Amino acid sequence: MALRVLLMGASGVFGSRIARELAHDPRFALTLAGRQRSSLQRLRESLGDPSVQVAALDIGAVALPATIASLRPQLVIHAAGPFQQQDYRVAEACLACGSDYVDLADGRDFVSGIGRLDGQAKAAGRLLVSGASTVPAFSSAVVDALLPRFGVLESIEHAISPGNRTPRGDATVAAILGYCGRPVRLWRDGRWQHGHGWMLTRHQQFPFGLRWVGLCEVPDLELFPARYPGVQSVLFRAGLELRRLHFGTLAAAWLVRLGLVRDLARHAPRLRRLSEWFIDAGSDVGGMVVELSGRDAHGQPLRLRWSLSAAAGDGPQIPATPAVVLARKLADGELPLRGAMPCMGLFTLDEALAALAGFAIDTGLESITA
C-alpha cells in the first residue's frame, strides 16, 4: 500500500520541490495542501501525475486538527513556514490522528523544543521530526560524516550563501529578518556568549569565490554543543550574493539593535519585492561550507572544509531534500525510530547526496592550512 503523504505548504519554494520528488513514485499517495487551491491546482497540473490530490488547508484555522484527520495521512510534511512564531499544533494534530510528522523548520527554539512531545509520540508509536532542512539535518549529516577523522573536534563554523537569482519566499525572508539585530546566544570559547543577528560579518570562502556572511539564529547553535561533546565553538553564518543586499540587511539589523525598528520581519513582503529589483544582477549559483577544526587521532592540528555548490537555481533543493529522504525511508520501512526529535542522525550524508543526484550540485573536501 502506498504511504499517504499530506504535504502542507506544497506550493511554496521548498514544498513544490518536495512534491516533484514524491510525485510519480508508487510508494506515495500524495495530497498537496495549502491556503490557495488555485496554486495547488497549478502545481498538480505541472506535476502531470493524475493520482495527486489537492486540499485547501489553513494552519491558522481552528478546525485544522479535524481537517488533517479527515485526510487520513500516514505522514504529514509541514513546509508552511516561517516556524519562528508557530507552535506544535500541526505535530499534535498528527499524534491525534495517528500520523508521522516531518517539518522543514529552521527556527532555533522550535526545532530544539520538539522533544517536549517525545513521551506522547513514543506512547502513540509515532515519529515526529523537526528541522528536516539545511540546518540542522544536512549540516549535522556533514559533521557526522567527517567526525571520525578527528580525535578531538574543537570548532564548527558553517555558512550558506544562495545565488541572487534563487527563488525566495516571504516566509524565508521573514525568518531571516526576524533575528536581524537581535541577541543570539552562542557557544564560543567553551562558554555561552551573545552575538547579534547578521553581525559578526566576515568574508567566507565558497567553491565559487568569496562572499560576505553574517551570524544567523539557527538550531545548530543550540543543538551542536550537546551533540558533539568537547566542541568549544559553534558558529553559523549566512549571506547574500550582492553586497548591496547583504550590507543593506546589515544596516537594517543595526536599526533593530539600536531600537529604531521593532519588527523587521513584518516588512518581509515589501523587502522581498525590493530585492527582486536586482534579480538580474547576480547569479543562480549558491552553496554551503562546513569548516571543522580540532586534532586528529595523533594529536596533530586538523582543519577540514567541506563544501557544496549549487548551480542552475538548484540551491533550494538542499533544504527540500531531507524531508524527501525521510519520506522514502519511512515508505521503505527503514526508519523504525519512534518519538519526537530534531532531524539529526536520521540519515547519512551519502543518503542525502544520493537523493540530489541529477541536480546541478557538486561537493568537495579539502584540508585548510593555517
TrEMBL record:
Domain Saccharopine dehydrogenase NADP binding, first and last residues per copy: 5-105
InterPro entries: NAD(P)-bd_dom_sf, Sacchrp_dh_NADP-bd
Superkingdom in the source lineage: Bacteria
Gene3D superfamilies: NAD(P)-binding Rossmann-like Domain
PANTHER family the UniProt entry points to: CARBOXYNORSPERMIDINE SYNTHASE
Protein's UniProt name: Saccharopine dehydrogenase
Native organism: Rhodanobacter fulvus Jip2
